[in-house]
Amino acid sequence: MSESGSDGGKWLDAHYDPVAGLYTFSSCVDLADLSGDGESRLVVGDLGCGSYSMKLKVYRGTVLMSESTLLDLPAGLVAFFMDLHEPRIPAVAVASGPCIYVYKNLRPYFKFTLPGLEVNTLEQDVWQQVKEGQIDPLTLKEMLEGIRKKANIPLSVRSTRFLSLETSDMDAFVQLHNQQPIRRQTVITCIGTLKKSTADEDGVSCLVIGTESCDVYVLDPEAFIILSKMLLPAAPITMDVTGQFDVEFRITVACRNGNIYVLRRESDKPKYCIELSSHPVGLVRVGKNVVVGCTDESLQGFTQKGKKLWRIILPAPVITMAAMDLPTRGFQGVLVGLANCEVQLYRDKNLLSTFKTPNVVTSICFGRYGREDGTLIMTTKGGGLMMKILKRTAVFDDRDSAPGPPLAQSVRLNVPKKTKLYVDQTLRERENGLTMHRAFQMDLSRLRLATAKAYVKALESSLTPMSSSLSEPIKMNAVVQGLGPSFKLTLNIQNTAACRPIMNLAISFLYDESLYRMRNPYMRIPLLVPGLIYPVETFVECTSDKGISDIIKVFILHEGQSSPLLTAHINMPVSEGLMLS
Amino acid sequence: MATACSVDNSKMADGSVATELPVAIDTKKRRAPKGTWLARDIVALATGRISRLAETLKEKTKNKSSVSPELPIVERRNWLIHQHYIRKDYDTCKVIIKEQLQETNGMCEYAIYVQALILRLEGKIQQSLELFQSCAILNPSSADNLKQVARSLFLLGKHKAAIEFYHEAARLCEKDWEISHNLGLCYFFIKDFKHAEEHLNIALQINKHDKTFMMLGKVHLLAGETDKAIEVYKRAVEFSPENTELLTTLGLLFLQLGKYQKAFEHLGNALTFDPNNYKAILAAGSMMQTHGDFDVAMNKYRVAACAVPESPPLWNNIGMCFFGKKKYVAAISCLKRAHYLSPFDWKVLYNLGLVHLTMQQYASAFHFLSAAINLNPRMGELYMLLAVALTNLEDVENASRAYEQAVALDDRSNPLVNLNFAIFLYNHSDKKGALDQYQEMERKVNLLRDGCTNFEFDPELMDMAQKMGAALQVSENLVWTKPGKDSKSKPNSAAAIKPPGAPLGTNQALGQAMSSAASYNKNIQLPTGVSKGPTMPFEPEPDVQKAPSLPIDPPGPTELAQSDNPKPRTSKRRTKVED
């Protein structure tokens, strides 16, 4: 099988920088020939610290070539041709927040902002009234809450923020904001490109963007006007686009509700829907099929129309996925980055190759980098950047994954061995089975007899901590507390009779006087009301420092009778403290 | 609606307020002067951005009448939260959620939602429930929030409350597979199988999922409708032919019904797709074992032993494989391991008793069998084995009592019990009693034979019974000849199920197993035929017969299963397979 051993031979380690400090996803990495010199650069949208120092970084070879600050978290990044000018130099579009920033020649070129969303008219009216001073902030709050409950259109940021405010801050807030019209904006969650009219590699492409408000827009690359708008049932996570806008296209979108939708040219609603049983992590199209990695550690294949083809279980959760497309060799596969620091290459459901990485891979990008066609670029969890080049001699066997018998089949069974002694015993039993059986039965009977005898004796001489005599049914248990040398001995005595109280009882102790000293070895017990538990406490001091312990016997006696009602043996713990004095 | 705005439009700085201009096309000519863009755009963006500082700065620079600070978009980082959530990077996720909630004053619905999901994964279900409820307040029109509230209630075991919430969610969003499936699940847990079935079927109509098939099958099984369950699983396997769990379950069901061919087919399929499937290995292995295919079964078990090395049924089956291969010491080792792993499993004890009987360790056998009887006092065969052990230990009185008990409890119409009893009585010169038992046996044999035409009896059993008949001078041996012919004339029909040689082989094996007692044995067999009727000879004979019957189930008993009462008889090996 193509396990780790053989894969060292397929990839050349070109570059590894473990402290490149890149925090990014596969959607924010792209390869493009940004200066038209035939050498591809790596463009990365770096999320920086997750809230600040977001950067757009460009690598050439092993060097960071340029770096420019981004204003907001990049949700996606694509390189695309936006016009027909020569030389053919692609622009870079970075989606962040509600805007798309377009860079050309690595310089800021253009900014596109998503249109605002529809605002609830009721909400608008209410704010209008506030502006005119017709209602006070408290009424406003009530009305807004009412609107939130009923309306189909969610409230704007301002209203939700207002609702979360303390009463004291409301006035100031209203003063500050009421001059502005209410707007609702949404955020871009994913971005892709769609060829406009030709399938050429350097043809002009439209931008396709998915938004938090569950819309998908197709933008004209030159005028930046919205060419088409489609609605999804849930917010998109990632998308794959194929085809040409003017001819026929297909947008496959993985959504946050765990479904995958396929959008077509003629309809503004999803044409097909694939319901997954867990969230999709990555989505890659290979030829006409869609390969999806899910959170339940599975990789699934579907046709374009949503018919399930196959499903395989992965050894670890999927972190990221990317397509591996080598048109020169006619090879198409799927690279899957796993949480166990492995990257696996699949063609359909067949595992072709696996290699280990020093850390968990967070983003994968395969394509032409520099002048090398088969370059694999990965970023790792700690911020590392790794580049590998596919050897020209590397061959991925298209072997069927149906394996022979599993390895475990050739492992010997661990059958416990038996000793010579065992065999001897067996022989002995065979010869003397009868005697053995009889002796056993005899001994068993004796044992039973002895047990019964001991039990009867215990009952007769009240050696048990339960008295079952009809006149004085009593139960007792004892608790010893302390580390020594002094212990607290608590005896819990309970009268288990239904209604009759018991009187005239006393407790006495029997112990080794050389070991223990007891404050009062004889105590009288008060009248015992049925059902209640009476704790009787006394203190025992251990007088020996030799670390030995003994049994203290407790008797409950009826006054005037010499035989005890019940007896308890208390195993004293070893005294751990030294006697002072 | 074109909201595009050129970057170097200097009015940008006034915020996007003024710029709903459909500009943009002239951008080609203009190039942004180097460097200035960002500086300016910071201001421009501040309108859509957070930084308070920038806002206040801007406010100061602007004339007073204008802009108030633009509030950050609440959903700004939802995508980031989701990306981390699906990558199972919960720590980072929680940090981002915290920041996001601080920024939005706790109004970000999605952040709360994911926080609740994470809490639930961490087992803090009550807390997650509260968060989901607050989500439902923030956005009451979302069915998803209600679904999650219901899910948390379900996990807390409050199924009825969960059902109410699911119904409410169903009102908001019709035709949702998940809601119907989970409703089915809730009803299943409160044992309302009718409703469960109904909702699961609805779920299947909306969309087909393996999970739902699995659940529906389970509901049918618990409601005792095996046929329907099989139908469901068949549909499921059609829908997803590579799901090993479904294949295995279906295979086991067929096995339970005695449809070995189909069972083996499905189990085999399951093993093709997942050669390490423990359940399928055990089931398929036990079937091979039944057909005397011990080496192949052992191969399979080796795989299972790697995957689940501490499985009592597995070691039990391995032990019985060794037993079939006449490796008695290994058999005992394995069975003892199974016993160690599961000390209260009477089947293991039963097999241990049997192997020890074969090994002529009657005293040990006695202990294992009596332990088994203590755990399962309602099985006739156990008493019969005990009686055999006792007979060999020369405890005639108790042996006879054990036989009586065995006969009284034998509700599976196993003729073996009566035959053994008859032999025992005959050997202790109670001819009348022996005759009674013999006739009882004949009755059972007739019953079995009528139940199933191509019924095949253990030849050892037939042989012994004929000798016994002769000894008792009963004329109607006809009983035997028929089934005998039957089994001989139709070996092929039986062969579909098992290789014809197998049953015989195993019996012979067992016969030889007794080799240590061989001299003993051979002496005996002759006499029985001659009907000399010395007391001694018959004794070992019974367990020779027993031995085949129990462990190697194939010859007689499993066939019994097919004909008459499938469940009880087959249960022995099979249940082990399943657990």
Automatic annotation (TrEMBL), chain A:
Pfam families recorded: BBS1 (PF14779), GAE_BBS1 (PF23304)
Residue intervals of the Bardet-Biedl syndrome 1 protein GAE domain: 474-576
Record-linked InterPro entries: BBS1, BBS1_N, GAE_BBS1, Quinoprotein_ADH-like_sf
Keyword field: Acetylation, Cell membrane, Cell projection, Cilium, Cilium biogenesis/degradation, Cytoplasm, Cytoskeleton, Membrane, Olfaction, Protein transport, Sensory transduction, Transport, Vision
The keyword Membrane belongs to this UniProt entry's keyword annotation: yes
GO CC annotation, single: ciliary membrane
Alphabetical GO biological process terms: non-motile cilium assembly; protein localization to cilium; protein transport; retina homeostasis; sensory perception of smell; visual perception
Signal peptide: none
Listed GO MF terms: patched binding; smoothened binding
Domain Bardet-Biedl syndrome 1 N-terminal: 11-264
Subcellular locations according to the entry: Cell projection, Cilium membrane; Cytoplasm, Cytoskeleton, Microtubule organizing center, Centrosome, Centriolar satellite
Quaternary context: Part of BBSome complex, that contains BBS1, BBS2, BBS4, BBS5, BBS7, BBS8/TTC8, BBS9 and BBIP10. Interacts with the C-terminus of RAB3IP. Interacts with CCDC28B and ALDOB. Interacts with PKD1.
Name used for this protein in its record: BBSome complex member BBS1
Organism per entry: Monopterus albus
UniProtKB/TrEMBL annotation, chain B:
SUPFAM superfamilies: TPR-like
Record region (Disordered): 481-508, 524-579
Entry GO CC: centriolar satellite; ciliary basal body; ciliary membrane
Chief localization: membrane
The keyword Cell membrane is assigned to this record: yes
A Pfam family reported for this protein in Swiss-Prot or TrEMBL: TPR_8
GO BP terms, alphabetized: cilium assembly; protein localization to cilium
Database matches in PROSITE patterns: TPR, TPR_REGION
Protein localization: Cell projection, Cilium membrane; Cytoplasm, Cytoskeleton, Microtubule organizing center, Centrosome, Centriolar satellite
Entry keyword set: Cell membrane, Cell projection, Cilium, Cytoplasm, Cytoskeleton, Membrane, Repeat, TPR repeat
TPR repeat spans: 210-243, 244-277, 312-345, 346-379, 380-413
Biased composition (Basic residues): 569-579
Family assignment from sequence similarity: Belongs to the BBS4 family.
Name of this protein: BBSome complex member BBS4
Organism this protein belongs to: Monopterus albus (Swamp eel)
